[in-house]
Amino acid sequence: MDENPVPLIRLLLARLERISADSIWAHRASGVRGRLLREMEKIETNHYIPTDETYKLVNASFHILEKAVREKIRTNKK
Fold this sequence. Notes:
This protein is mainly α. It is built from three helices and no strands.
C-alpha cells in the first residue's frame, strides 16, 4: 500500500457504502466503514500516521467486498 492511504480509503468507503442492505455483509460493512471514516478523519486533520490498525481495516474492507460480491453472484445464479 502507498504511504498515503487516503485515496484507497476513499475508494473503499464508496464501495462499502454500495453494499445492498439485503446482503448479509451489510452490517459488517457498516461497522468497518465507520471505523475507516474515523481513521480518515484522524489522517486528514491531525496528520496522523497510519498504523497497523489502518492497514487491518483496509484488508477487512477488501475481505467484506469480496464476500459481498461472491454472495451477489451466488444469489443471481439461482
